[in-house]
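ingest -> validate -> predict -> emit
validate: passed (alphabet ok, no gaps, 329 aa)
predict: started
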Amino acid sequence: MVKQIVRKIFQIKNIKLRIFILIILFIGSLAIFQYEIQTKTIKEMFQPQLSSNPEATEYFINAMGVASYIERLHNFVNYDSFLMKPLLYKMNKDYEKGKSLLPENSAEDVFWYMVLYRKIYGIGVATSNNDNSLSYDKDFKTEEDYKKYYEDILNRITRLGTFDFKYETPMITDNKLQIMNNLVEEYLNLVYKFMYDYFEKKSNLILDKRYLEDINSVYNLYKHYLINNDDKRVIDNKYFEIRILSYLLSIDMNQTLKIDCQNPKYKELFKNITDIENVSINLEPEYYSKELEYIFRKTSWLKNLVKSLNNCASLKEEVFEILKILNKE
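emit:
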């Protein structure tokens, strides 16, 4: 077959065309060879035989092989380039095939979706090379657009937190919580948007009780996920718990127009702030992460929430201690 193709190429009288076709064939063969090597390397890293859904995982790994090519090409062109389209199509096709082979009670597709697409679409992270050509537009034109995207992110968090999946290999177990954190980051950014829009009198979505129920559900799912994924990144974990709780309690205040001093989540918030303070107290300045910066040095939102509890007699001592922590320079 190969000999016949080569023979036909050399029968072409136009020398320039003949050379061009040979170059294209050489580049194509090299690309296929590199793809096979890359896919083999990825398989060795991810060990699909350890997956509870090995057939589906094979397709996800094939998609990863394509993704590696996409990132190499991305050094020269944006994601929306016509050169990217066949690669993105192939990656999407492999991902969707893998997803179709999973049982309904597996959330493995959520993990791979984030691995493959988060830096292309900007889901909870910055896009690769700051290329926003395919990133989701967060300046939603209508509330319906906002709700649709909100539901998609909430659904992925719910599935990952409810179903999880068994896949005991370091490349998976070491990154599962990071994937959840990226989803929660995206979710909290969406929640912050409708809180901001409410204060700017642009939207009253924050007053819909279902959003309070949603964020409460996300908090419970996140805590459950931390228990099931023994991760040592205490600062990251506490940071997300503090953000979720502070948004949850702020929404509750705005919906009820009162402060419930008996709400146990205030005590949980205080404990998380104290815990993250205890972890950070001995850190050298160069290890002071953006999460700590956000909690302790850009804390007007958090301080104001805690200050609003000054009239709660049952929390007076704790409020005093927490404000001491938050007021540190």
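The chain has two domains: 2-130, 183-326.
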